[in-house]
Amino acid sequence: MARPEEKAQAMLNKWVRMRDESDPTSTLSRSLASRQKRPHLASQCEHRADAEKYRSQIIREISDKVAKIQNEGLGEHAIRDLNDGINKLLREKYHWNRRIRELGGKDYNKEERRAMANAEAEMTGDGTSAAADDLQGISLKGSGGYRYFGAAKNLPGVRELFARHAAKLTKRKRGDVYKYITPDYYGLRDEEDGVLLELESDLAKEGQKKLKECRDRHQAEQDDVEIKRDQSQTNELYATDESDGDSDDNALENGIDAHVAIPSQEVVAQVLLQKKKEALLSRFA
Q1: Which phi-psi region, left, alpha or beta, contains residue 137 (left: φ > 0; alpha: ψ -120 to 50)?
Q2: pTM for this structure?
């Protein structure tokens, strides 16, 4: 009987091994594929089936670590290492999901976001929310997506972070808002101390002073306009009287007498001035 080394070198055994390696459904090809190391970068994978397989590997590793981190007796350092490892695997799974999408597969990232949103919307107080938190982890806003699983939520310092975050998210009810509303909110006590009244009186006096100055300035301008207008009319009347006197002299020289009494210049000026005064008084009365 030949030794095992000689059997391995036989032509028939070589052919059987080559056939099993080429068949992806054979036991030998599956064992070789399972021993194949996962690429460090998802972009190095060129086949969608391989990407799906590596994603499944990552999901199994995450499940194992999540199950281990539920034990609070592991110690603080071990729990922190496990939590960091879970977050690292989650980031790696995100990259593999994106690679599967690039290779023509399903959009796992979109499905996971939708499932997480549905789980948050359906959270109730019967314990289902706690179970979902243990599986999906809890993240703080502004932490870059870092999540805490299992016993990691009770680590020193982490509990205080979640307490402060919960206090910020606490929504006040309408009754709580009305509870702290006082008459000061509506301005009903603003005049009790007298400060507001004093400020208002000062502003009122200043406004009245400005209004009086503006009125006096406008009145002075109007008076100047009226005086200039009166002077122009008087000058025109003087010019008319001189021309009439010349015509009267000519008429007398020609033997024609004037039957109309002509007032003097002083009388005309006094009449015009009196009419302007009456007009101004009637305007500002």
Answers
A1: left
A2: 0.46
